[in-house]
Amino acid sequence: MKNTARTRILDQLKTDQAATNAAGLGDANSDAYYELVTRIVSEAEDAEAAILEIVQLLKEHGRATSKCPVFPAWCTSAGEHDDHYSADFTILDTRGEEMLAAHVICNSGSTPIVGISGSDFAPDEARTKATELRWLADQVETLAAHAEGAAP
Predict the structure, then answer these.
(1) Within this chain, do residues 56 and 104 fall inside the same structural domain, yes or no?
(2) What per-residue confidence (pLDDT) applies to 62?
(3) What pLDDT is stored for residue 100 in this prediction?
(4) Which whole-number Å values give the CA distances from 87 to 84, 97, 105, in the listed order?
(5) How many CB atoms lie within 10 A of CB 36?
(6) 14: Cβ contacts below 8 Å, ≥ 6 apart
(7) Range of the domain at 137
(8) By Cβ atoms counted within 10 A, which residue in 60, 83, 112, 151 is the most buried?
(9) Residues 45 and 8 in one domain
(10) Is the residue at 141 inside a domain?
(11) Could you give the CA distance from residue 123 to residue 5 in angstroms, rounded to a whole number?
(12) Are 6 and 41 in contact (CB under 8 A)?
């Protein structure tokens, strides 16, 4: 039973490493990681318990290192950093190109700003723009109804 689990885990590690390298995300560090985990699982008396312990350690390490200590609610940068960036929220056009985008940025020592399609706004200004965007969205709904001939 345990050999079956060990084989399954080792096969999955090999598959994951190949996929990481095929996606162009592999490097010497990721290769060393896969080699270390493979060795630990291969040598462990209980392969499933070993992999569960590794996963728990990775989760604990991830919690400690993945959150920005300054802006943990939105900064996507990990590790030590001075400039802070949120995820981008975008709307794409029919060609799949960015039509509208928004994010938060805070460069070293400055106040966070909201970027909306190339323009920067203070938080209160961004809220005003959000109100305008909601109004615009309502107008787009009306225009779509006109185009369908469904408007009263």
Answers:
(1) no
(2) 56
(3) 93
(4) 10, 17, 10
(5) 11
(6) 34, 38
(7) 84-148
(8) 112
(9) yes
(10) yes
(11) 52
(12) yes
Q: Which strand (E) or helix (H) includes residue 121? A: strand 119-121
- Cα separation, 91 vs 11, in Å, equals 40
- pTM for the structure as a whole: 0.54
- Neighbour tally for 100: CB within 10 Å: 13
Mean pLDDT per block of 10 residues along the chain (152 residues) reads: 73 82 74 84 85 77 64 83 90 88 92 96 96 95 89 54
C-alpha–C-alpha distance, residues 38 and 43, integer Å: 9
Distance between CA atoms of residues 138 and 23, nearest Å: 41
Contact between 33 and 47 under an 8 Å Cβ cutoff? The reply is: no
- Asked if residue 138 lies in contact with residue 132, where contact means CB atoms within 8 angstroms, the answer is no
pLDDT at 1: 44
What does the pLDDT read at residue 32? 82
In a domain, 140, yes or no: yes
